[in-house]
Amino acid sequence: MLVIGLTGGIACGKSTVSKRFREKHKIPVIDADLIAREIMAPGESAYYKVVEEFSSKVPNLLLPNGELNRPVLGDWIFANPKERKTLNAIAHPEVRRKILFQIVGYYLRMYPMCVLDVPLLFESGMDVFCGITISVICNKEVQIERLMLRNPDLTKEQALDRINSQISMQERIEKSNFIIENNDNLETLYLKIDNVVSYMKPFILTVILHYFIPFGIISALSLILSKWYTRYCAKKIRQRKQVRKVVYPKKFRPANIKVKHKKGTSRR
């Protein structure tokens, strides 16, 4: 089964693309945002961990009905980026577990493809489970306009801060197999989506082979290992570029020069 990773910048139209996959092309969509909300529901283990960790830090963390006040928590995390790692360490393992469970479920139901809709696809490392990755992008001016329209309380500076808190569009482009630009109307966007889907559809023979369990397991493992290895190599290259070699001049004294020491002084 082909797992398609779908991501995009804030207010770029990723949800519209995801909806088109699901409704027009009947491709099942695994929504990471929905899963993240589910694991933070009262009674879930992640919920208790978040309450224990952040209740003393975040004012009005809980709503009167006991649910997490997600907008308040989100704003606080945005204002305290160092705490993002703590929250991610609580949420991401649970989200990954549920995502993998759903992927296996669609595989057992013999779907040829499924879409993994993850806003932080590359940042969370979930792209290693995807055979193809798609990023939805748009011009920054359009992105700011859409974000402010969606959140009227935001100023232009605040909207820009939220956009800049994510990875850059250029980085998305470099890491993605397909790019869907969403700067125009819906009809144009739908046409682009349909073209991408027609290109991605696997051959019948490929689908059959993937459902031959040994081949499917080997194919999945080779994909994951190759992506991990590529990421490892890229990390090493970045580290080498960051290393600055400092060359210190050697202290030497010509052998034919003798140093005279005054009486009473040390020769050290």
From TrEMBL:
It holds the Pfam family CoaE. GO terms for molecular function: ATP binding; dephospho-CoA kinase activity. GO terms for biological process: coenzyme A biosynthetic process. CDD domains: DPCK. The keyword DNA-binding does not apply. InterPro entries: Depp_CoAkinase, P-loop_NTPase. The keyword Protease does not apply. Keywords: ATP-binding, Membrane, Nucleotide-binding, Transmembrane, Transmembrane helix. The chain crosses the membrane at residues 208-230. HAMAP family: Dephospho_CoA_kinase (MF_00376). This is HEL168Wp. It comes from Eremothecium sinecaudum.
